[in-house]
Amino acid sequence: HAADAQRTDLMTITRFVLNEQSKYSESRGDFTILLSHIVLGCKFVCSAVNKAGLAKLIGLAGETNVQGEEQKKLDVLSNEVFIKALVSSGRTCILVSEEDEEPTYVEPSRRGRYSVVFDPLDGSSNIDCGVSIGTIFGIYQLNDSHEPNLEDVLQPGKNMVAAGYCLYGSSCTLVLSTGTGVNGFTLDPSLGEFILTHPDLKIPKKGKIYSVNEGNAKNWDGPTAKYVEKCKFPTDGSSPKSLRYVGSMVADVHRTLLYGGIFLYPGDKKSPNGKLRVLYEVFPMAFLIEEAGGQAFTGKIRALDLVPKKIHERSPIFLGSYDDVEEIKALYAAAENGG
Ligand code: P6P
């Protein structure tokens, strides 16, 4: 009867989070309400992404975002859906989106205690060729009801109360942590519900995969170049690592979380801070990887200790299996000490 029990005992993401939050006596269900609106946004984007090719949603919207990249209609749509869903939850006060140059300050009558930083459709340059893309989000909580200001979101990632991503790939998978481990939920389209499919995810301590854009090798600094060289030509008699690089952060990080290994987006001579954004790419992924037992490093410090100065600032990032990140930390430390 175990199989029957499982089939009828559907652990949806809402039920899972309610169970988790009910452990905190002061919880009034606000976080659960906020999360249900994020989930609504993910369901909408999942549906739109799956129909994009048919609904001719692809193609340029003509506008450009803060990155100067041309926005695709799906970007614009996804951003609007998430902003509206988050405001209508009545639980947010500041929203920072990769698509908007300025933060959105929620008007007082609809304000709540949470700030959400998010990339509504990361990897969007891959939309037209059908490669997996995703939504990434991080959540900060204001600890009192002061007038929200930029300082409330220029916080180190370790102050986040939750983080997650939704991968729009062969299936639609939402991976979430509220600070007590990592859990994965897969959308069952027939129910329109995210069902718990990956309970208590832990990243392998060491992996056999490295994930980096080798096309930037010419500009890498010493420690990154040395590390990648060791992946390809190990000196300890071990086999070379495999290279897997999708070029869509959510896809590359999801594979790293499940299979182990290391994902690198280093800084280089051309872009000393790399390409990935601190608030809504580096922090949420670092939060999840650490909660799953891995590490996330900027080349100088623990990624979650970084204190951002601007909402769209970038940072180099090396994240993944504990032992693999430890190796590149040692190379940066040696370079620091003139090694
Ligand atoms: P590159 C996608 O545009 C993105 O922001 C991330 O999703 C991805 O990890 C990275 O850029 C890929 O960048 O320079 O390797 O194409």
UniProtKB/TrEMBL annotation:
Gene Ontology annotations for the cellular component aspect, listed alphabetically: cytosol
Domain Fructose-1-6-bisphosphatase class I N-terminal: residue ranges: 11-199
Cross-referenced SUPFAM superfamilies: Carbohydrate phosphatase
What this protein needs as a cofactor is: Mg(2+)
Give the reaction(s) catalysed.
beta-D-fructose 1,6-bisphosphate + H2O = beta-D-fructose 6-phosphate + phosphate
| Location in or out of the cell | Cytoplasm
Q: Which residues form the Fructose-1-6-bisphosphatase class 1 C-terminal domain?
A: 203-332
Q: What is its EC number?
A: 3.1.3.11
- Single GO MF descriptor: fructose 1,6-bisphosphate 1-phosphatase activity
Recorded hits in InterPro entries, A to Z, give: FBPase_C_dom, FBPase_class-1, FBPase_N, FBPtase, Fructose_bisphosphatase_AS
The Swiss-Prot or TrEMBL record describes its family as follows:
Belongs to the FBPase class 1 family.
Task: Name it.
Answer: Fructose-1,6-bisphosphatase, cytosolic
Organism (species): Cucurbita moschata
